[in-house]
Amino acid sequence: MWIIILVLLVIALVLILSKPGSIHPPRINRQGRIEFYSKGMDAGFSLSEINLLWSATQRAELSHPPAIYGSVEELDKAINQIAGNKKFSDRKRVEPETVILKKLFDYRIKVEMSRPKYRSGLKSTRNIAIGQKLTIRADGVGLYTSKVVENEPGYLTITIPVGDPLPGGFSWRQVKINVYFWRKEDAGYFFQTRVIDKFYDRRNLYFRIYNSDNILRSQKRRSVRTIARISARMYPLKGLEEANFWMESSPGLSCLIVDLSEDGAAVKIGGRGKKNQPFKMQFKIRDEIVVVSGVVKRVKYKTKEDESTLHVEFLPLPENTKMILLSYVFDIDRSRANNSNPEAQDTLNVISGISADEPEEVIPLEEDSPRGEVESEDGVEELESVSDD
């Protein structure tokens, strides 16, 4: 008797699952769920974490949930759905959703860094883009800056190297030159070459240098960064022992973050910046206060504007702070892409309690490093022209 009852229950269950409008997904979705769980296990997520991910994909109404394991767009939707409206700074470390968010951001970085633009590098100088900035060094002289203006199969045309006056009797055409450059969103490169000749156009002097297929790639980008425009306050420190993540009530010194990643930023300040300067910085991202500390690693100074761009490296950050930065870098809610929450709006009054109309202070840091450590851009640090005998 009980066997008949069991058979009837099974038949009834099959009929319910096959009915249109059933609360259970149709067969194609069940197959998609199997694929979703299989790919989730391959990606290193636990069963409970995959359950949470599946729930997020359903709430986000993703048409093909397994796509989150390869598509950054679909993955961002899932992250944004799990994050919800709760602040990252209010999350507790042991909460299940906090744990999965940390893993999702790590996975998001992995997916992003696997893109071809991060993995494939230059194999030859023939692929260097016009406008690429170069740093040049030769035996007996220091660092000089230049820029690519033409790239032909056999040679590169570059602007005349700018730097300290050359020693007497020095000729660029008689030495092997070492060339360094950083390719945006990629890595640092190095190659050696020689000057073929020099020529004048109507106004300027240029060098032609040999192209090279022997190019070394190093200093690969470790993190994803994005263009930013975030008002911030900086606090120069006497040493890294003063570094902390406490919020500051004093106004600090105004600056502007123009490039941001999870481990560093590019920051514009007034006046000359100082390499190796420890600092603390405070700013706001989408209603959350961020406090970081770090060191200035590189400085670019513009003489005419009397302003510097500091390339800074952060000290290791708390996990919640890291997630705030990554949520901005990846724009997981697409607020920047949709211009619904532009970071260009002034937030200094929120951060420091002062009016944005008050005169801004500039950071009084003096450049005390040797010539050559402060990089120059177009119209930046106009040094004496370099001649070639």
The assigned structural class equals alpha+beta
User: Element order, helices and strands?
Assistant: HHHHHHEEEEEEEEEEEEEHHE
Mean pLDDT: 78
- Provide the helix percentage: 10-25%
Return the CATH topology of the largest domain: Thrombin, subunit H
Overall 3D form: globular
How many domains make up the coordinates?
3
CATH architecture classification of the largest domain: Beta Barrel
Q: Supply Rg.
A: 28 Å
Strand order of the largest sheet: 1-2-3-6-5-4
* CATH homologous group name of the largest domain: predicted glycosyltransferase like domains
Question: Could you explain how this protein is built, in words?
Answer:
The longest helix is centred in the first third of the chain and has 18 residues, at 96-113. Strand 1 and strand 2 (143-151) form a beta hairpin. This protein is of the alpha+beta class and 389 residues long. Helix 2 crosses helix 3, helix 3 crosses helix 4 and helix 4 packs antiparallel against helix 5. It has three domains: 2-117, no CATH class; 125-214, Thrombin, subunit H (Beta Barrel), CATH 2.40.10.220; 225-375, Thrombin, subunit H. Mean pLDDT is 78; it is low at 13-28 and 341-389. The chain has a six-stranded antiparallel barrel. A six-stranded antiparallel barrel has the order 8-9-10-13-12-11. It is globular, with a radius of gyration of 28 Å. The protein starts with a helix and ends in a 14-residue tail after the last strand. It is built from eight helices and 14 strands.
